[in-house]
Specification:
Blueprint (H helix, E strand, L loop, with lengths): L1 E2 L3 E10 L3 E5 L5 E5 L15 E6 L9 E8 L2 E4 L4 H12 L9 E9 L4 E9 L2 E10 L1 E3 L2 E4 L5 H15 L3 E8 L6 E4 L5 H12 L3 E14 L2 E11 L1 E2 L8
Parallel strand pairs: 4-6, 10-13, 12-14, 13-15, 14-17
Antiparallel strand pairs: 1-16, 2-3, 2-5, 3-4, 5-6, 6-7, 8-9, 9-10, 11-12, 15-16
Helix pairs in contact: 2-3
Length: 246
């Protein structure tokens, strides 16, 4: 997946009111960008880090910029929560989604379950339905990446819904889309949300498939234009996190 239009690299100044970030552009002007990320964004940025924002020319939008990624050291970290859905859908359509292959009739945001939910992606493998939930995953702890980075009642609800689909005879999968390439293992953040962790363990035992897919973000300059490219990298190992953390 590639974005080539209206991208700017600035300097991250602060995040506030959950959805707002101040970014200083190279010309010294400070703009307010919208952050789609509702989590804590821990380990994703510090004041002064490079930030990649996209200008959105929409007269109906109050904020004309969206925050896409921050750079921690040499690593770009994708913090936009809309990107994982687009990327996973693209991988599924190409037939190269790290084990989630052969899925047809793909649809997005399909109503399902008993708690007024919508599944990120629905499809069919032969006659069997499959329900795929996608989570943007960025919390770095040493060589591990974890989810969630904040308590997520909504995420726990999704786990209940996916278990219901399994009970009905369907397949269910949870893709943790890891938008950073400086981690090697995945584990659930039990200390942050023990209720979610318990429900995830329960769901896995009932047949929920887990896919922690790591992607590399590359920000390039070509002919004066900034380009953002996502490169699918590998399926991370699921491994219990050691006590030492960054």
């Amino acid at each position: 997946m590639i974005i080539t239009n209206d991208l700017f690299i600035g300097k991250m100044l602060r995040r506030y009111k959950r959805f707002l970030v101040d970014v200083e552009l190279p010309n010294g002007k400070t703009v307010i960008a919208h952050s789609t990320n509702t989590g804590s964004m821990t380990s994703c940025w510090e004041p002064g880090d490079p930030a990649l924002i996209k200008y959105v020319d929409d007269p109906n939008r109050k904020l004309k910029y969206t925050l896409l990624a921050c750079k921690r050291g040499p690593t770009w970290v994708g913090v936009d929560t809309a990107s994982p859905h687009k990327l996973v859908l693209e991988l599924l359509q190409s037939g190269k989604c790290f084990g989630l292959n052969g899925i047809k009739d793909l649809r997005s945001e399909v109503k399902y379950g008993s708690e007024s939910s919508r599944i990120d992606i629905w499809g069919k493998i032969q006659a069997q339905e499959i329900f795929i939930e996608i989570k943007n995953t960025t919390l770095k702890r040493g060589l591990w990446v974890s989810f969630p980075d904040a308590v997520t009642e909504r995420g726990t609800k999704h786990l209940r819904e996916l278990q219901l689909m399994i009970k009905k005879g369907h397949r269910a999968a949870l893709v943790f889309l890891v938008q950073r390439n400086d981690v090697n293992y995945f584990d659930v953040a039990r200390d942050i949300d023990p209720i979610y962790a318990k429900e995830l363990t329960k769901a896995i035992k009932k047949g929920l498939e887990i896919y922690p897919i790591r992607v590399q973000l590359k920000v390039l300059k070509r002919k004066g234009q900034t380009i953002l490219k996502w490169i699918p990298d590998k399926l991370l190992s699921i491994k219990t996190m050691t006590p030492s953390k960054e």
